[in-house]
Amino acid sequence: MEKQKIKAVIEAILFTMGNSVEIDELAAALEAEPEKIREVIREMKEDYEKEDRGIRLLELENACQLCTKTEYYEYLIRIARQPKKYVLTDVLLETLSIVAYKQPVTRLEIEKIRGVKCDHAVNKLVEYGLIEEAGRLDAPGRPILFATTEDFLRTFGVSSATDLPRMSPEQMEDFKEEAEEEIEQRMKKA
Fold this sequence. Notes:
54% of the residues lie in helices and 13% in strands. The protein is α+β, with helices and mostly antiparallel strands. The chain folds into 2 domains: 3-76, Winged helix-like DNA-binding domain superfamily/Winged helix DNA-binding domain (Arc Repressor Mutant, subunit A, Orthogonal Bundle), CATH 1.10.10; 90-189, Orthogonal Bundle (Arc Repressor Mutant, subunit A). The strands form 2 sheets. The chain has a 3-stranded antiparallel beta sheet with strand order 1-3-2. A two-stranded antiparallel ribbon has the order 4-5. β4 (131-136) and β5 form a beta hairpin.
């Protein structure tokens, strides 16, 4: 099949599905190698970025999706219902950060890092669709493992968890000093 036809088929599938579609599924539908599909998707992504188009191709780990370009969102919401906005409090952001950088992670591991219970925060993040159950740990009690979702990737504009920003050693040292000072102040008050 010629490349232009492959692009047209991928575009039709992504448009019709609405949600993300895995590369392997596209490859199976087109009877092509996944690497060939990835190459075509990269070209399509460049085409959408170059041209004055209202949509863009979003890559999400091993999947892709067509979506509206953010600069045209204001026009879209005049017709479509505005999506429900959720508020990410400091507690939710802190919990989400832990899950994003340590995934898959259990509630207990999150609580060890945060130093407080996290049931409410984890439940809210699951409700918002930013994290999900990713299996169970092979340990006594078989605790649930949590990981980020494709909605998380879309919301924060990253293709995969590996694209999340990393802290420099200087930032790590600053955070360590701040934490030690906070512990010291708490001990003085106690």
